[in-house]
Task: inverse folding
């Protein structure tokens, strides 16, 4: 459904939820949790079933790829002339538990469409795989090993903050429309703008100032004085103006070890692809 859009997003990689809907209201809520390694998914699903409807279970639940366990309660009456559908699934391959709640607050045809076409195609990713994030018109392909830490989803300004191995950090950001944004501040100023505050401060070593529609800086992120000499992180920052799509793409990456570095320009290339 082309008019569906995220209404609420909270949590992080380990536990969270998001709500999707349209102009008529919320359509479904998806919740996730990454449990400990020895966690029994069947026990969690059974507890959720009891909390929702005293263990009532419907037959033939959809089971998307990479899910070895799935269960659901379909068309559960919650009050007069109202019902909801709840689906649960577990993927040991990706170590994630998923709960999907169809709110039934909008046209029933939308729920039927979701159950028939969207739910069976639900995709999950392992932490060791590249993650493709698509939110509104934004598109971010995140390297393997990085997991979501913080996010900010504002109108015209979407920023996602990831970390890896507790020390490597990656910020990806899209600002729209670029023409209006550049009336407020220049490309270098947008690159200096801190979305999420951090203890380490950026020190520029190399500054490519004369690149049209682009600004790139490399350097170090160090702790405040007098601790700046302790374990500095290599850092690379890049901002590009996409005049065709009227967007700004920003990447801010830091690594404790140079062997963990990657080409940040490749992330910009993926961000420039239009979302279908």
Result:
């Amino acid at each position: 459904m082309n008019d569906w859009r995220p209404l609420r997003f909270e949590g992080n990689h380990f536990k969270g939820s998001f709500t999707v809907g349209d102009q008529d209201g919320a359509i479904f809520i998806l919740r996730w949790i990454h449990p400990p390694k020895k966690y029994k998914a069947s026990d969690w699903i059974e507890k959720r079933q009891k909390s929702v409807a005293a263990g009532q279970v419907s037959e033939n639940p959809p089971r998307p790829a990479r899910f070895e366990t799935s269960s659901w309660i379909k068309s559960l009456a919650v009050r007069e002339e109202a019902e909801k559908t709840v689906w649960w699934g577990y993927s040991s391959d990706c170590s994630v538990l998923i709960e999907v709640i169809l709110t039934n607050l909008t046209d029933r045809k939308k729920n039927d469409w979701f159950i028939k076409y969207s739910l069976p195609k639900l995709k999950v990713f392992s932490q060791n795989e590249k993650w493709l994030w698509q939110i509104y018109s934004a598109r971010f392909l995140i390297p393997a090993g990085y997991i979501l830490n913080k996010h900010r989803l504002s109108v015209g300004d979407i920023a996602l903050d990831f970390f890896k191995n507790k020390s490597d950090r990656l910020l990806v950001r899209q600002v729209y429309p670029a023409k209006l944004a550049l009336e407020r501040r220049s490309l270098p100023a947008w690159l200096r703008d801190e979305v999420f505050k951090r203890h380490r401060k950026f020190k520029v070593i190399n500054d490519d100032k004369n690149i049209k529609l682009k600004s790139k800086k490399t350097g170090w992120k160090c702790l405040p004085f007098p601790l700046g000499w302790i374990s500095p992180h290599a850092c690379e920052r890049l901002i590009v103006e996409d005049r065709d799509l009227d967007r700004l793409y920003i990447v801010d990456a830091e690594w404790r070890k140079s062997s963990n570095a990657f080409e940040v320009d490749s992330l910009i290339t993926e961000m420039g692809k239009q979302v279908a």
User: Anything to note?
Assistant: The chain has a mean pLDDT of 85. The longest strand covers residues 69-79. The first helix runs from residue 41 to 53. Helices lie at 41-53, 108-118, 178-184, 187-192, 264-271.
